[in-house]
Amino acid sequence: MAVLLALIGIGLYGRFERQLDETINQGLRARAGDVTLFLQRPAGGLGAAQRRLVDRDESFAQVLALDGAIVDASPSLRDVPLLTTAEVRTAATRRQTILSRRNPFEAEPARLLATPISADGRRLLVVVGTDSDDRDATLRSLLLLFLIGGPVALLLASLAGYGVASAALAPVEQMRRKAAQISEHTPGERLPVGHTDDEVARLGATLNTMLDRLERSFQRERAFVADASHELRTPLAILKTEIELALREGRTQAELVDALRSAGEETDRLAELAEALLIIARADGGRLALAPTALRSDELLDGVLGRFAARVSAMDRELVVADALQAPLTADRRRLEQALGNLVENALQHGAGTIHLSARTEAGRVELHVRDEGPGFPAAFIAEAFDRFTRADPARARGGSGLGLSIVQVIAHAHGGVARGANHPEGGADVWIELPLAAPTPAPADPLGASRA
After folding, report:
1. What residue numbers bound the domain in which 31 lies?
2. Would residue 131 be called left, alpha or beta, if left means φ above 0 and alpha means ψ between -120 and 50 degrees?
3. Taking the model in full, what pTM does it have?
4. Which of 13, 135, 372, 374 has its CA at a distance of 20 to 30 angstroms from the CA of residue 75?
5. CB-based contacts of 310: which residues, under 8 Å, 6+ apart?
6. Same domain for 256 and 298?
7. Three-state DSSP state, 200
C-alpha cells in the first residue's frame, strides 16, 4: 500500500505540475501575441503594451535584436537583457523557446517565452516572462499535503485491510483451533462451517468430508484388529488346551494322538488365518503382488476342478464345469485359483448338491461363476457377504474366519474387477468374479500373405 500510494502521489504531482506549466505557457503565448500586435502597429511599443495588458509585478517583456541588443523593453527592463547572446541565437531558430529565470527585479523564480517575429522590416525576438512563485508555492503545498496525508492514508488503509483480513480469516482460525482439538479420542467432532457459500466454507466442508472418510477408515481398522484378535484367540486357546491335556499324566497313546491331531488342525487354521490377514493387509497397502499372464477361462476352471476333485469326491459331492467358455484373460493364475478355491470351499461347507463352475462374457467383461444347490444366502446377509469377518451364522464358533469371501473381493479388486453374490433362481448360492476381458491377440501372418485362423 505504501508503494501504491507513493506511485499515485508521484503521478498526481507530475500531472498537476505539467498542467500548471501548460497554463503558464498558454498565458505567455497569449501575452507574446499581444506584444507582437502592439509592436506591429504604428507608434506601438512595450511601454503602452505594459500599461494596457499586464501589471508590472506579474509580467514583463523585452524585444531583442538577433545580435542580443535590446530594441524595446518594459520600463523596468531597459538595461537588463533577459537572454544571453547564445540563447538569442538558439531562440531565433525556433518557433517558441521556454526558459526558467530569476525575476530580474525581485530575484524570484520566473518563466520566459521567446518568439521570433518580423516588425519594421527586420527580424526581432519577443521575450515575455512571468513570476512562477505562485506555481512553486502551489506545488510545495501539494507536496506537503502528500507528505502529511500519505502516511495517514497508509495507516487508515492498513487498519482497514487488517480488519477485513481478520474478519475474513476468523472462520479459518476457528477451524484451526477446532482441528487442534480433534483426535482419535474425539470421534464425531467436525470443523465449524459457516452458512456462506465462499471458499472458506467450501474448504471446511471438504475437510469435514475428509474427516468422515478417515473416521470410517479408522473404525474399519479398529474393527479389523478386534475381529482378528478374536479369531486368533479361539484357535490359540484350543491349541493351548490340547497341549495341556496331552501333558497330563495317565493319557493313553490314542488320547495323545487325538490331542496332537486337534493341535495340528488348529495350527493349520492359524496358518490359514495368518495368510488371509497378510493378503488383506497387503491389499489395503496397495502391495498385493500379482504376476499377470495370458490365460483362458476354460483353463482356469479346469485347474480348479482338478485341484478339488479328490476333496469333493471324499465329501460325496460333485463338482462340474457347466460352461467352459474360452474367454481370454490377463491375470495372476495363482491368485484367481485361490479366489475360486475359496468360493468352492465356501460351497462345500455351507452349500449342498452339485457345485457348478461356469464362465460367460458380458459388456466387455468375463464372469467366473461358482454355484451350489444348497439353501443359498440369507436375504439380510447378501449385502455384507464380502465384508471382513462376517458369517451367515454368527453363532458358529469354529466354522471359519469369515475372511474367505473378503479375500475373493480383494483379489478381484487387485485385477480391476469385482466380486458379487446372489441367490440363484433355481436355488442355491451363486457367487462370481467379474474381470476385464483381455484384448484378443492378433493372429500371426501367413507366409503367403493369408492370415491364419
Report:
1. 2-138
2. beta
3. 0.51
4. 135
5. none
6. no
7. helix
